[in-house]
Amino acid sequence: MIKILGRSNSINVRKVLWLCEELDVEYEREDWGREFKSPKSTEYLALNPNATIPTIIDNEFVLWQSNSIIRYLANQYNSQRLYSTEAKQRAIIDQWIDWQAIELNNSWMYALMNIIRHSPKHQDPALVQHSIKEWISNMQILENQLAETQAYVTGHNFTLADIPIGLSVQRWYLTPFDKPDYFHVKRYYDLLSERPAYLKWGNNGQN
How many CA atoms lie within 13 A of 6 on its CB side? Predict the structure, then answer.
């Protein structure tokens, strides 16, 4: 039984929950972060010195950083079905996971904090518009990739890369601002929404 530490409305925790459902891995979750138990507590910091969520405990094995966690779970409980062991195929999966974490995630951050979180530290209109512009630019990259694959991010089959990117697409549609009508992104969104695990933890109304 894997223990997942983190609140269920965190996009990074939802990556792990979605993957556990895909892999049919048993888990239990504890609420940590924001209004729940503080990840800055001595108890939590002993597991994760960054005070971030999620952290998992798999028997005696402790791991933090959401993308490291999903890679570990795919390796430990899935082998090749979602995370190919062939070097070139795995590199492409990793490429898109890292692209989401670095390029896409950073592009939306200021706009999201303004539009959804109403953060008083993110109230500069010029920076909001810059963030939206960068977000749209990155979504165009995804649109082009999906036009090429005509299915999932890396090809015909669902892979580990579709979990962080699928959550990002859901965030794109739930954040209200004027956005391009990307045909292939919408088709991808609908394709993912046929997966029960995505409906439970990905496309479930949380942003």
Answer: 27
